[in-house]
């Protein structure tokens, strides 16, 4: 999504991310994969309020062997992005697009770790007449694909 930052800048769109924990944050920031403001919600209040789901243990196990998940892991590896097995592997996320003034334009919820909104769909929801660059559709989610999480 950060590949859209130049388009966002031209259209006065602010990119904000919310992470469920600070574990791995420094490592993530060093990769320069996210160009927006990043907030930590360790109590996961926004995740709960938005209705984002969690994997069960069996769901996480299934995600580890899912073809789409493996494809994203391979794409990330080719781009030099590595993951780790730290942190909360069970929390799903999504995309919330809010118009200035608070009107919700789109709430996209992951059903599995490899799910993501396509960049062109984000631009379309925002009403921005621009074309996402080729090769920017799949957003690697390494924290979801690089191994089976420890049981909490």
Automatic annotation (TrEMBL):
GO molecular function annotation: prostaglandin F synthase activity
One annotated Gene Ontology cellular component of this protein: cytosol
Enzyme class: oxidoreductase
EC code: 1.11.1.20
Entry-linked PANTHER family: PROSTAMIDE_PROSTAGLANDIN F SYNTHASE (PTHR28630:SF29), PTHR28630
Coiled-coil zones: none
Role of this protein: Catalyzes the reduction of prostaglandin-ethanolamide H(2) (prostamide H(2)) to prostamide F(2alpha) with NADPH as proton donor. Also able to reduce prostaglandin H(2) to prostaglandin F(2alpha).
Organism superkingdom: Eukaryota
Subcellular location: Cytoplasm, Cytosol
Annotated GO biological process: prostaglandin biosynthetic process
Database matches in Pfam families: AhpC-TSA_2 (PF13911)
Catalytic activity: prostaglandin H2 + [thioredoxin]-dithiol = prostaglandin F2alpha + [thioredoxin]-disulfide; prostamide F2alpha + [thioredoxin]-disulfide = prostamide H2 + [thioredoxin]-dithiol
Keyword Plastid: no
Record protein name field: Prostamide/prostaglandin F synthase
Entry keyword set: Cytoplasm, Fatty acid biosynthesis, Fatty acid metabolism, Lipid biosynthesis, Lipid metabolism, NADP, Oxidoreductase, Prostaglandin biosynthesis, Prostaglandin metabolism
Family assignment from sequence similarity: Belongs to the peroxiredoxin-like PRXL2 family. Prostamide/prostaglandin F synthase subfamily.
